[in-house]
Backbone:
């Protein structure tokens, strides 16, 4: 048929266009192209719409060609690369982090000091893309890298930065073994092993469970770290772990594991998963008849308001240990909450707060580092300045690094009530 | 005992989803000897179509389901026209359409990513009925029963179409020998297009049902089920409809009972170990009718 001659080149255009706008795609505001019509008109408009939609990100990509860090006296500019999971299983967290980082960039650039130029790229929650993004930052003139969102990626990407002597500031990595990669790797997010003891203590003090089941994503290192930390707490406190189940982050059906857990009659279940899987698990758990008296305790992945959005009433009562809560009385935090809400019409969550704080920490270190304009020297100078970070005012409170370059501040324990996180008591 | 029954319920539900998804795969393979790896992308688009119809046009879910099936069928015809028909004309080997289908899958998924972003979408509350109709410690949601019933109806309808109608006879004739069918006056290209239409409609239907049951629709939702679908059709015999159904339930049963009695950590290892075992004993799958043709 004649129109099939057009379809091949048009489809090629579509591939090129869509490949260009692959990663940081935003939800369409225009009416989505209906794929139901196979007529030439529709086939022509779909690739054309895709091609024009992709022209915008491509253009902005070109526009953000970074200026070389200026070494001249006066305003200095620091280029920072940020790798966040804007798509894929990490996508409940990445866009929120991107929002916070850009907000922080605006706020801090207004306040003076070293001008920040943050380039946010999508790591697609995939190691390969994360590595590509890191390498483009390392080869470029970025003086530091923020992210990546997921600990699993960090374990693959951070060694590259360490070898290239480029400082990395993780803002949501909570697995074990991240900062031990090397002295250029820092994080402002509390590790699972820092949060779990406080969280378990709070739950034990209030509910005194005698039997606990554990369920975690075996393809996410942070989930395994959380599960290991919980198991250790249970062993120390002589609480029986009735069952340990695993699943993959892409799984959608958890009824088999939950049915088995239900059969062991636990008093509480610890679930560590990314937001999408976590929400499905709690929804299915309640549907399978696991009663509300069996409390759900979450790992860091459950610290997202997406859980309540997706799981609805099933999310009520989930207890999670966190690094930040929006009701924190810290005045910087309160200002941040207002500003974030005003700019994005969304409430910020822990991930946003940690990302914002990350920029604040970098900005403080940049002031103290003596930037010369030579990228390699500046990276080392920045690393040394970061290591000296002491009591910096951030939205997380007064922030310092431990000697192991982990975050040094106490966790909070929060619980989902009426779809929102409140302090657990 | 109620735990065991609950696991049986879980198996039946999961198995019906696998079987429905695999039907489309195996139909195209049976007729054309090619593996259409864009099937999972059509599955995902079927779900998005239903979502858009419900949220943007306010249609009720039954109507949206039917329209999404039709839409997916049309997508299948498009797939054939763009990715497979030109290769058939040039007498390409069996590998070329496979690779072409991978490309189409990437295109479809990128289109969805570009239009919808990486977020997970949900049907508005109240779209589908939801009520616990279990008894005796076994929990069954009415939605699961409906989905199981719809899947079974579609499977039976497909089998009836193939065995009892003239169109079905044409499809089976083309599957057996394209040249002979052409000589007998069957319009082979049209039959192939219709096969893709049916296969993709089934894939889209599976997508809508899965999207409803999990209330989660995202551009990457096809990936989790894609590999399982492939395993199902291999175990069941590539090209065999009853084989796909049996294998779908068999795979679900293996997964559920591995988790129950062994451990969820080895679930995938055992499920794919089963695949190896079946292929050792029945190289063409359980109900596979002929030896796999070489590429």
Residues:
């Amino acid at each position: 048929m004649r129109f099939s001659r057009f379809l091949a080149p048009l489809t090629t255009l579509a591939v090129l266009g869509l490949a260009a706008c692959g990663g940081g795609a935003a939800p369409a505001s225009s009416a989505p192209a209906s794929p139901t019509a196979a007529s030439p008109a529709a086939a022509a408009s779909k690739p054309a719409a895709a091609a024009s939609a992709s022209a915008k990100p491509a253009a902005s990509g070109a526009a953000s060609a970074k200026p070389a860090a200026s070494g001249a006296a006066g305003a200095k500019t620091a280029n920072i690369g940020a790798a966040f999971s804007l798509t894929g299983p990490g996508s409940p967290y990445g866009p929120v982090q991107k929002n916070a980082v850009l907000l922080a960039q605006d706020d801090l650039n207004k306040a003076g000091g070293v001008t920040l130029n943050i380039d946010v790229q999508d790591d697609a929650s995939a190691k390969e893309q994360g590595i590509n993004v890191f390498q483009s930052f390392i080869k470029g003139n970025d003086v530091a890298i923020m992210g990546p969102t997921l600990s699993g990626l960090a374990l693959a990407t951070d060694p590259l930065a360490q070898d290239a002597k480029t400082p990395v500031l993780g803002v949501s990595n909570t697995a074990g073994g991240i900062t031990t990669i090397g002295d250029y790797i820092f994080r402002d997010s509390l590790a699972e092993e820092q949060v779990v003891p406080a969280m378990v203590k709070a739950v034990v003090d209030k509910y005194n469970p005698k039997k606990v089941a554990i369920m975690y994503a075996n393809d996410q290192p942070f989930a395994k770290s959380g599960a290991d930390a919980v198991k250790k707490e249970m062993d120390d406190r002589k609480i029986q772990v009735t069952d340990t189940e695993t699943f993959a982050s892409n799984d959608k059906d958890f009824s088999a594991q939950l049915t088995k857990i239900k059969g062991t009659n636990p008093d509480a279940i610890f679930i560590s998963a990314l937001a999408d899987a976590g929400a499905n698990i709690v929804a299915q758990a309640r549907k399978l008849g696991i009663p509300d008296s069996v409390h759900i305790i979450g790992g860091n992945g459950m610290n997202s308001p997406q859980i309540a959005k997706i799981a609805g009433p099933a999310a009520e009562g989930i207890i999670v240990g966190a690094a930040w809560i929006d009701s924190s009385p810290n005045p910087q935090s309160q200002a941040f909450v207002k500003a974030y809400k005003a700019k994005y019409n969304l409430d910020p969550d822990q991930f946003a707060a940690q990302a914002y704080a990350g920029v604040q920490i970098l900005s403080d270190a940049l002031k103290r580092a003596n930037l010369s304009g030579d990228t390699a020297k500046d990276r080392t100078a920045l690393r040394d300045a970061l290591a000296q970070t002491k009591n910096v005012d951030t939205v997380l409170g007064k922030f310092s690094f431990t000697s192991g370059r982990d975050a040094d501040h106490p966790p909070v324990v929060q619980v989902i009530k009426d779809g929102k996180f409140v302090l657990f008591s | 005992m109620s735990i065991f029954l609950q696991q049986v319920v879980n198996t039946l539900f999961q198995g019906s989803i696998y079987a429905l998804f695999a039907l489309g795969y195996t139909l195209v393979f049976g007729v054309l000897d090619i593996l259409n790896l864009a099937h999972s992308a059509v599955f995902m688009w079927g779900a998005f179509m239903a979502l858009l119809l419900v949220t943007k046009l306010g249609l009720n879910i039954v109507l949206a389901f039917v329209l999404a099936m039709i839409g997916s069928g049309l997508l299948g015809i498009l797939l054939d026209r763009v990715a497979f028909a030109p290769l058939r004309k040039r007498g390409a080997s069996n590998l070329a359409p496979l690779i072409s289908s991978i490309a189409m899958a990437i295109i479809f998924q990128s289109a969805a990513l570009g239009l919808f972003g990486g977020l997970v979408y949900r049907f508005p509350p109240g779209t589908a009925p939801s009520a616990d109709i279990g008894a005796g410690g076994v929990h069954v949601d009415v939605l699961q029963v409906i989905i199981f019933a719809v899947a079974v109806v579609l499977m039976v309808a497909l089998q009836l179409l193939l065995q009892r109608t003239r169109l079905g006879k044409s499809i089976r004739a083309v599957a057996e020998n394209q040249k002979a069918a052409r000589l007998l006056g069957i319009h082979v290209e049209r039959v192939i297009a219709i096969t893709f239409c049916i296969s993709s409609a089934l894939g889209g239907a599976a997508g809508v049902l899965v999207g409803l049951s999990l209330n989660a629709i995202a551009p990457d939702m096809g990936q989790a089920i894609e590999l399982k679908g492939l395993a199902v059709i291999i175990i069941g015999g590539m090209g065999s409809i009853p084989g796909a159904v049996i294998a779908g339930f068999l795979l679900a049963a293996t997964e559920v009972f591995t988790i129950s009695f062994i451990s969820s950590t080895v679930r995938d290892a055992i499920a794919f170990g089963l695949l190896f075992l079946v292929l050792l004993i029945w190289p063409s799958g359980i109900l596979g009718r002929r030896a796999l043709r070489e590429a």
